[in-house]
């Protein structure tokens, strides 16, 4: 999988912007310098700023079945002085101007304390998380900066290589290209192409791109013969609002009841982290079925549900299927639903169909090629079975294959039907 930096980061709002002389960044001159300078002046004068950033990943691979990386959507709300809410796929940062909450949503942990002074990305304890937000929402760092520069937008920016006129969604603009080196990779990995697009009319930034195709072998663990043909991240700024009113609750923080307040963030033990889902509502999901048609977990309401997470390359998954099929047949006339969740990418789905046909497996299977459902259910490995009661509460989860699972699940289903 793509290497992801899981981190929590504190946001600061700088009230004074200092426009320095041209720095020694190669290519930061002439028209390129003018385009950046205009944007920096606009962002520096805003009283408030809001947007949604949609991160799309263009991915192509050959020679094997490689899980495709998944994009995400982030939201940013900012108001002077020192108020912010930034929500990414893994973290949430909230400041009301006096108190700061740093939330590591991916591990259900948070820290809350007085707002640090100075409140900048380079403050002690915050600088280590800089890389994460440059990758997730580059404008986050730009809005903080006392002395903004293009280097805030891309981690490891080495040089700017050119500028050209280019329309985006019908709007005229300028695209500035450059090269960046990932400091977390060996120098031999080399530089990758990056770009940032500016709207001619507003002067605001509308898109960032990073083409990681060249360094993909350092980011993916593929099997023999696997080749990554394309790995390009496109971060699109949508619905940008300057000096618009902000929601009343934008800068308030109330931790989820499942979240833990910590002095230091830590990676939990995978097994105990998984088991924490027992007793909680099962995450909702929807998707396409392997044999055609669409599916929504709302269709499972009021039923005891057995989810079977699997893939066609997983031998133990296939060994477990006959026992799961027996449970499907045994309870087909009762309020029980057995559902497979197939995590194969598109290239493996044909093989998955053949496996089900050959083994006469008849319970339905929803496709999860990006493993988004699997992540919500904290799948650590497959086969992975999750049992949900009629109220939609997770009651049990089993990892791996054992001949005893069929009997164990049957007893638990019988008990849940009585409740």
| Helix proportion | 10-25%
Major sheet details: 12 strands, mixed
What proportion of the residues form beta strands (DSSP E)?
A: 25-35%
Query: Could you say which overall geometry the principal axes of the C-alpha atoms support?
Result: globular
The SS-based structural class is alpha+beta
List low-confidence stretches: 1-22
N- to C-terminal distance: 41 Å
How many DSSP E strands?
19
Rg: 24 Å
In order across it, which strands form the biggest sheet? 7-8-9-10-11-1-2-3-4-5-6-12
By DSSP (H or I, 4+ residues per run), the number of helices equals 9
Overall average residue pLDDT: 88
Helices and strands, in order, run as: HEEEEEEHHEEEEHEEHEEEHEHEHEEH
Structure description:
This protein is α+β, with helices and mostly antiparallel strands and 419 residues long. The protein is 21% helix and 31% strand. The strands form 3 sheets. The chain has a 12-stranded mixed β-sheet, covered by helices on one side. Helix 6 runs parallel beside helix 9. The longest helix has 16 residues. It starts with 29 loop residues before the first helix and ends with a helix. The N terminus is likely disordered.
């Amino acid at each position: 999988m793509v290497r992801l930096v899981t981190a929590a980061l504190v946001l600061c709002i700088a009230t004074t912007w200092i426009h320095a002389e041209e720095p020694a960044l190669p290519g930061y001159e002439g028209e390129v310098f003018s385009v950046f300078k205009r944007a920096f002046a606009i962002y520096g004068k805003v009283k408030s700023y809001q947007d949604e950033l949609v991160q799309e990943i263009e991915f192509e691979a050959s020679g094997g079945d490689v899980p495709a990386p998944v994009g995400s959507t982030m939201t940013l709300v900012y108001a002077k002085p020192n108020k912010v809410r930034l929500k990414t796929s893994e973290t949430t940062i909230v400041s009301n101007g006096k108190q700061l909450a740093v939330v590591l949503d991916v591990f259900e942990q948070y820290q809350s304390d007085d707002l640090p002074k100075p409140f900048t990305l380079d403050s002690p304890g915050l600088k280590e998380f800089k890389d994460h937000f440059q990758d997730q929402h580059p404008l986050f760092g730009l809005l903080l900066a006392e002395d903004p520069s293009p280097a805030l937008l891309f981690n490891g920016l080495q040089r700017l290589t050119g500028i050209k006129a280019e329309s985006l969604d019908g709007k005229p603009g300028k695209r500035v290209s450059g090269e960046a080196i990932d400091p977390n990779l060996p120098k031999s990995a080399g530089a990758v192409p990056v770009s940032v697009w500016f709207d001619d009319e507003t002067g605001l930034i509308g898109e960032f791109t990073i083409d990681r195709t060249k360094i993909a072998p350092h980011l993916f663990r593929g099997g023999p013969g696997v080749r990554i043909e394309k790995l390009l991240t496109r971060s699109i700024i949508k619905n940008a609002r300057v000096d618009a009113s902000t929601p009343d609750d934008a800068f308030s923080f109330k931790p989820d009841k499942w979240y833990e307040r910590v002095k230091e963030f830590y990676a939990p033990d995978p097994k105990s982290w998984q088991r924490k889902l027992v007793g909680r509502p099962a995450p909702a999901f929807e998707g396409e079925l392997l044999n055609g048609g669409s599916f929504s977990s709302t269709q499972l309401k009021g039923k005891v549900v057995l989810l079977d997470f699997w893939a066609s390359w997983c031998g133990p998954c296939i060994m477990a299927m006959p026992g799961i099929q027996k449970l499907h047949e045994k309870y087909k006339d009762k309020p029980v639903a057995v559902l497979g969740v197939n995590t194969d990418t598109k290239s493996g789905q044909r093989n998955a169909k053949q496996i089900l046909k050959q083994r006469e497996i008849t319970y339905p299977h929803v496709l999860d090629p990006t493993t988004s459902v699997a992540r919500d259910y904290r799948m650590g490995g497959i086969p992975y079975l999750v049992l949900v009661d009629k109220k939609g509460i997770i009651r049990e989860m089993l990892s791996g294959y054992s001949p005893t699972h069929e009997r164990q699940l049957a007893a638990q289903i019988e008990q849940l039907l009585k409740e």
